[in-house]
Amino acid sequence: xxxxxxxxxxxxxxxxxxxxxxxxxxxxxxxxxxxxxxxxxxxxxxxxxxxxxxxxxxxxxxxxxxxxxxxxxxxxxxxxxxxxxxxxxxxxxxxxxxxxxxxxxxxxxxxxxxxxxxxxxxxxxxxxxxxxxxxxxxxxxxxxxxxxxxxxxxxxxxxxxxxxxxxxxxxxxxxxxxxxxxxxxxxxxxxxxxxxxxxxxxxxxxxxxxxxxxxxxxxxxxxxxxxxxxxxxxxxxxxxxxxxxxxxxxxxxxxxxxxxxxxxxxxxxxxxxxxxxxxxxxxxxxxxxxxxxxxxxxxxxxxxxxxxxxxxxxxxxxxxxxxxxxxxxxxxxxxxxxxxxxxxxxxxxxxxxxxxxxxxxxxxxx
Length: 366
Fold this sequence. Notes:
With 366 residues, this protein is mainly alpha-helical. It has two domains: 16-58 and 178-355, no CATH class; 75-131 and 157-171, no CATH class. Helices cover 66% and strands 4% of the residues. It is built from twelve helices and two strands. It has helices at 17-53, 55-78, 88-95, 108-118, 136-151, 182-213, 221-260, 268-285, 288-297, 303-308, 310-323, 329-352, and strands spanning 99-106, 161-168. Strands 1-2 form a two-stranded antiparallel sheet. Helix 2 (55-78) packs antiparallel against helix 3 (88-95), helix 7 crosses helix 8 (268-285) and helix 9 (288-297) packs parallel to helix 12.
């Protein structure tokens, strides 16, 4: 005979709406306090963090300028402005020595005048290149005639000397700021990011503490299991974005800029925003298997429901992958692929960790 329900077995654990708000306020206050402590510590490492987050950007910029330089050298050879044959020497200068070439044209007469000023005792012939040396008696008259003729002469491009000037790639790979206060604000943001990373275990603990406040006693034990997994998945997603996603995304964006003929001039504030959004989106999205396991534990979904709705789940993953990261195909694919694997990994996790039976499940059968 079923047992009559005269009272709520969990009456001592129920909370009113006001008590939920009070619990939320307490958890938020503690999380913000932990973030402030982490921010103070992050102020010490802010400069190093700014230099660290620029590494993938500078690497992608270096590869972009090197590819552009090699492509330009190939075009010059095709146009007949470089000697025919192997240009591996130029490629080595660009790719291994990390030098970029600027094609310049110099007026021979200006070179000659500049050389005379540097080395006045050197016998430098007058006239066109290769005309021979002038005698000592006629040198003064030749210089006067040359100065008089060069004053009103017309210089043509074909009369000039074409040559390459090589400069380090680092001269082009730079991140700019457009205001005096921008570097200081970037330093504070970097310190805040560092503080959030250092305080993330405490912040995640407060989030799950608030979730636990609304659970029944037999469900609260899941929080102690989920907390380390939640933090690990967040850090894994953020690390995947920083170390494996940034470079292909940047290469795609730079390739698109080159196709449109738009020069690169990266602002540090825009780059930091990109650095924050992409890892944060990946870290949040990587909570998927843990959320699936949690919903299965509290009885909202089961493994059969996850298997039946896998097509809808993949559609939702595709939509989320278009919203969280920047709107480029590389970041969308690089997020949707791991999330799809994590979805089926969440199903496997539910299979390997079956839900424990509650002591109150059989009360209705008594």
